[in-house]
Specification:
Growth Hormone, Chain: A; 16 helices; disordered C terminus
């Protein structure tokens, strides 16, 4: 039990990190408007900017926090991050001006970049033959948080747009107290290393990974795919409210359904697809399904269509793992962590770019006096980006004979 309690704490921490993003998503439009962010179209632009700020902080501070935990230990970094996260949610819950929301997203992006420390702690306490299984638990916790967050946020919105922030603060506070009692330190003097800004630089590994055979083209395809995919968290609340008149509760339910469908695809279906058709054709089919899905969402005119088509559109989630599998086979055994770090950085860049790009597109096509009213325009843009990703991927040289060390 003494070993299980830290694992439970880590999983709850990662889940809260994930929930913190989705929990406030359904109420952000209403809160931004309440604080003087204009109409829904203008609020979407504000929302995109806030999301981009959050992602920039994650991108910059993820490696820094991970390196700090190597120097000062996992326990103080995790507990301090959770405590500051709780305080941040309280600040945002009481925010009476837009600048406080901006400060909140700055702090939130920093404190949510704790998954690298959580993974490091999990590696510290795992046997070598159990690390992959335990890392899978961390990924599952993140997925559960992403499903529960929007659902809980939508339900809590019935108490007002600020209620989800206080709920998130309570969760983070309770987990901080839990961790303070049960979390031992795993970094000893034997494995402790000095903090290095060079090693904390998120850009350092790109040039080395890009030299692997065929990987540079795959990284570009992965980049455009991520920008397209993040249209969902960027504009979903604004799009469904504008197109179907959904309230925050319906937004939360729809995001939970979509998240659950994706989790089933990535956790189960992909294990059946790749062994039968291979990674290459899995990526091609997955990208094709994504193009179809974005087109469907762009043209949908009834809310029930979103739920009816979720099992089909979620099949596009097979793309990411298959792409990662191809690149993983191209990397040597001592480059796997470096490769995953690069892919994480690319995802963060996608999170930075996509909210601004997608919300600006939504705002242009829904604002008063727009030359062409089309709320689904961001999904058309995403379909185009996926098509570009497909062209880049299909034109790569398939290295059948390459066998990594």
């Amino acid at each position: 039990m003494s070993k299980k309690l830290p694992i439970i704490f880590l999983l709850i921490t990662v889940m809260i990190d994930s929930m913190g993003i989705g929990l406030i998503m359904p109420v952000m439009p209403e809160l931004i408007i309440e604080l003087g962010g204009g109409d829904l179209s203008r609020a979407a632009t504000w929302g995109g900017g806030l999301a981009a700020i959050f992602a920039v902080m994650q991108f910059l501070f993820g490696p820094i926090i991970g390196n700090l935990s190597d120097r000062y230990g996992r326990r103080p970094v995790l507990l301090l991050s959770l405590a500051v996260m709780a305080l941040d949610y309280v600040i945002m819950g009481f925010a009476n001006a837009m600048w406080l929301l901006v400060v909140g997203r700055l702090i939130g992006g920093i404190t949510s970049a704790t998954q690298s420390t959580a993974n490091a702690y999990m590696a510290d306490i795992s046997e070598s033959d159990q690390k992959a299984q335990n890392f899978g638990l961390v990924g599952a916790a993140f997925g559960v948080g992403f499903i529960l967050g929007p659902l809980a946020g939508g339900l809590l919105s019935t108490f007002g747009p600020r209620a989800p922030f206080f709920a998130a603060a309570a969760l983070a506070t309770a987990n901080t107290i839990f961790g303070a009692f049960i979390l031992p330190e795993t970094v000893t003097d034997k494995i402790r290393r000095p903090f290095s800004w060079t090693r904390a630089n998120p850009f350092a590994a790109f040039k080395y990974i890009g030299k692997l055979p065929g990987v540079s083209r795959l990284l570009v395809a992965y980049f455009f795919y991520n920008i397209a995919f993040f249209v969902y968290p960027s504009v979903w609340a604004y799009y469904t409210q504008e197109r179907f008149g959904w309230d925050a509760t319906m937004v939360g339910v729809s995001l939970a359904v979509f998240g659950a469908s994706m989790a089933l695809v990535q956790g189960g279906l992909i294990r059946l697809v790749i062994p039968r058709i291979g990674e290459h054709y899995t990526v091609v089919i997955g990208l094709g399904i994504n193009i179809l899905a974005f087109t469907i969402y762009a043209l949908a005119f009834e809310g029930w269509q979103i739920f009816a088509l979720a099992p089909i559109t979620s099949l596009g989630a097979i793309t990411g793992p298959a792409l990662q599998g191809i690149m993983s086979r191209a990397a040597k055994s001592n480059q796997q962590g470096e490769l995953q770090g690069v892919l994480t950085s690319i995802s963060a860049i996608g999170i930075i770019i996509s909210p601004v790009m997608m919300t600006s597109t939504f705002s242009y096509f829904t604002r008063a006096g727009t030359p062409y009213y089309f709320p689904g325009a961001p999904f058309v843009l995403s379909a185009g980006l996926v098509l570009l990703s497909l062209v880049i991927f299909a034109g790569r040289e398939r290295l059948h004979s390459y066998k990594p060390d």
